[in-house]
Amino acid sequence: MLCLLPIGEVEPYVLEHLIPALSRTFSLPCASLKAVGIPSEAYHIRRRQYNSEVILSKMYAHRPPQAKRLLGITEVDLYVSPLNFVFGQADPAEGVALISLCRLHQEYYGLPADKALFLLRTAKEAVHELGHTYGLRHCYNLKCVMHFSNSLRDTDIKSESFCKRCRRELEDNLQRLRSPKR
Fold first, then answer.
1. What are the domain boundaries of the chain?
2. Disulfide-capable partner of 136 in 21, 42, 65, 131 (CB 3.0 to 4.6 Å)?
């Protein structure tokens, strides 16, 4: 099972959009957990942002035993040093990832809201970070969902899908996980 963990307030329509999209992409049942608070110790007062590594470290305690993957979703702006911001971060070894919706909203840039575009961006970043939890690295193909997003333009250019190479690697990794250990 793939579990979504709202961290702070996350609009229900976001979770309702992600559940079927992620379930389809990763061939796993997907469910949302009860929201948890944003760890205050993650806040950096000068940056006015939240350290994604601190939030990730707090997420492990909320992972249900049946969850193969856990994706945290938050509206707060995230960073990890030395970067100015991140759309998300993953811990592949633990199967835990986190995305921020903050910079995916058109309103963040002073533009009119566009719910469809926002949900598309959200799905791309969710699939990208979860892809890391399955061992996928950044891809050089600009259209592949695993391409690194250094800016929102990068997110908008890439698709919601894996390129052929990344899809094959994902399927190989999923098969290894399903196979009984000898």
1. 2-136
2. 131
Q: Would strands 2-7 and 30-32 be described as parallel, antiparallel, or unpaired?
A: parallel
Q: What is the pTM of this model?
A: 0.94
Tell me the catalytic residues. Answer: 129
CATH number of 2-136: 3.40.390.10
Q: How far is CA 20 from the centre of its chain?
A: 15
**Tens digit of each residue's pLDDT (9 = 90 or more) over 53-79:** 999 999 999 999 999 999 999 999 999
Report which of 101, 93, 157 is spatially closest to residue 125, judged by C-alpha positions.
101
